[in-house]
Design brief:
mainly alpha, Cytochrome Bc1 Complex, Chain D, domain 2
Length: 147
């Protein structure tokens, strides 16, 4: 009869007797008749480099409170409000106007960066060049998700 697996005092490693090790080892198997081509080294490298990586959004997700703080810090609310027209349109009106437009995100990011006029009346929107591309993207995304 084989000895049972024991755990020596003070040692946390499990020990298998030699007979058990031999019993659980896989038997040798002949090579299959059809040989499947091994992956090309470049493929192996590409796969190995991406193991465990998840798709990373181009702009880090931030909370609504953080975007609102960004809008306040950059004086967006001097001309805009969430639900009513001030000098410029309400953010929810902008969201409604561009809902379903596949180019809306890029359009608003550009409008924030370069400013413009004539879309919502005669009052021009000043350019906001000091905002980073990431900040413009966060603001545009926030506005477009309003309803």
């Amino acid at each position: 009869m084989a000895k049972p697996v024991t755990k020596p005092a003070g040692n946390t490693k499990q020990v298998l007797p030699a007979e058990k090790k031999a019993a659980i080892q896989a038997p040798e198997v002949a090579a299959p008749a059809a040989v499947v081509a091994a992956p090309v080294p470049a493929q192996q490298t590409a796969v190995a480099e991406n193991i465990g990586k998840e798709a990373v959004p181009s702009v880090p997700a931030v909370s609504d409170d953080e975007v609102l703080a960004l809008a306040h810090k950059n004086n967006c609310f001097a001309c805009h409000a969430l639900e009513r027209k001030v000098m410029g349109p309400a953010f929810n009106a902008v969201a409604a106007k561009y809902r379903g437009d596949a180019n809306a995100q890029a359009y608003l990011e550009n409008k924030i960066a370069k400013g413009g006029s004539g879309v919502w009346g005669g009052a021009p929107m000043p350019a906001q060049p000091k905002l980073s591309a990431e900040e413009r993207s966060q603001l545009a995304r926030f506005i477009l998700k309003l309803h």
